[in-house]
């Protein structure tokens, strides 16, 4: 093997190692492709809708996809009847991918004809194969004939006839991100002070003003829940330990439900009087607990900069989020 040939082979191997995970989403119009793309976006895929199949190879040559590290790039493209070259060129493009050694998976979305008709009537949109004045049913029949071979060669076929959107999202997560269900839910835990106003965006609000207040301890007043003396004062009391046990049991009950529902963002607010001591310590503890359970968690302290004395605003972790 010549030095030049060896160099080309090495370059090709490098390129293949950095090729993204590719999913081609196709299927019947009205079977749920838009909802599927939302699901892939939530899973961290770089998504392209209505892509002519002849451009799949060009897209793979792009070297930086927004928001994705090179070692874990994921790409999902929708190719369907809206592009007139779809049926003529997709087979050729797939053969090229195989020749290059690029792995891909085809996800085909289907539904019963009567359901597709009902969905089009409900949306009042025109079927892409009815431009010549054909009925919706005729357009569906044409599309089914054209997609027969694609469906036969698909790696996954999902029948969405009786599915609600959360069920489709759950099915896609199970197929393309098994074991990552919890990390698909972005959780923000933040502390706040009721005297600065109740939170507007929280899904769960926990009021911890019933716990003993470090504010009334002179040596702790100027500190925050990020400081060990305050944290120890708040967390290692019998009443707090009992609360934590019950609070965590509640989280263990509701969090899997949010994941199963397909919820993508969850805000948990923990409040005390001023947002300086108790809520901060317990928000930190709550975030640590959820992280240990495998959830993707960020934490913020909404009112820490308003703490009395100004010492809290200088704390390295007192920013709006970290």
Can you give a write-up of this model?
With 322 residues, the chain is α/β, with parallel strands linked by helices. It folds into 2 domains: 22-63 and 71-176, P-loop containing nucleotide triphosphate hydrolases (Rossmann fold), CATH 3.40.50; 186-304, no CATH class. The protein is built from 11 helices and 9 strands. The strands form 2 sheets. Strands 2-3-1-4-5 form a 5-stranded parallel sheet.
Features:
about 325 residues; alpha/beta; 2 domains; 4-stranded parallel sheet; 9 strands; elongated; disordered C terminus
Q: For the record, what CATH class of the largest domain applies?
A: Alpha Beta
Helix amount: 40-55%
Rg computed from alpha carbons, rounded to a whole number of angstroms: 27 Å
Strand content: 15-25%
Side-by-side strand order of the widest sheet:
2-3-1-4-5
The run of helices and strands is HEHEHEHEHHHEHEEHHEHE
| CATH H-level homologous superfamily name of the largest domain | P-loop containing nucleotide triphosphate hydrolases
Low confidence ranges: 1-19, 67-71, 310-322
Strand element count: 9
Q: Work out the helix count.
A: 11
- What is the CATH third-level topology name of the largest domain? Rossmann fold
Shape: elongated
Note the gap between the termini. Answer: 53 Å
Domain RapZ C-terminal: 186-304
GO molecular function, one term: GTP binding
Protein name: RNase adapter RapZ
Domain RapZ-like N-terminal: 21-177
């Amino acid at each position: 093997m010549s030095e030049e040939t060896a160099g080309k082979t090495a370059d090709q191997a490098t390129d293949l190692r950095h090729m993204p995970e590719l999913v081609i989403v196709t299927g019947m119009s009205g079977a749920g492709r838009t909802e599927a793309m939302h699901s892939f976006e939530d899973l961290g895929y770089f998504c392209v809708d209505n892509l002519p199949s002849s451009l799949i190879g060009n897209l793979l040559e792009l070297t930086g996809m927004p928001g994705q590290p090179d070692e874990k790039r994921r790409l999902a493209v929708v190719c369907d009847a809206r592009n007139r070259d779809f049926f003529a060129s997709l087979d050729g493009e797939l053969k090229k991918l195989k020749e290059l050694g690029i792995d891909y998976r085809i996800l085909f979305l289907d539904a019963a004809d009567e359901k597709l008709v009902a969905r089009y009537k409900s949306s009042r949109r025109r079927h892409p194969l009815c431009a010549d004045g054909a009925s919706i049913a005729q357009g569906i029949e044409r599309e089914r004939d054209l997609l027969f071979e694609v469906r036969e060669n698909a790696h996954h076929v999902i029948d969405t006839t009786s599915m609600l959107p959360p069920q489709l999202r759950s099915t896609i997560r199970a197929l393309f991100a098994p074991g990552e269900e919890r990390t698909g839910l972005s959780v923000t835990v933040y502390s706040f002070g009721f005297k600065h106003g109740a939170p507007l965006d929280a899904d769960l609000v926990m009021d911890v003003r019933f716990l003993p207040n470090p504010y009334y301890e002179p040596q702790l007043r100027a500190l925050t829940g990020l400081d060990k003396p305050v944290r120890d004062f708040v967390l290692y009391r019998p009443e707090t330990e009992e609360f934590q046990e019950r609070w965590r049991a509640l989280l263990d009950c509701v969090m899997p439900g949010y994941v199963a529902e397909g919820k993508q963002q969850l805000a948990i607010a923990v409040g005390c009087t001023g947002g300086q001591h108790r809520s901060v310590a317990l928000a930190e503890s709550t975030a640590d607990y959820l992280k240990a359970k495998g959830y993707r968690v960020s934490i913020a302290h909404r009112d820490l900069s308003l703490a009395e004395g100004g010492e809290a605003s200088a704390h390295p972790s007192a920013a709006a989020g970290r």
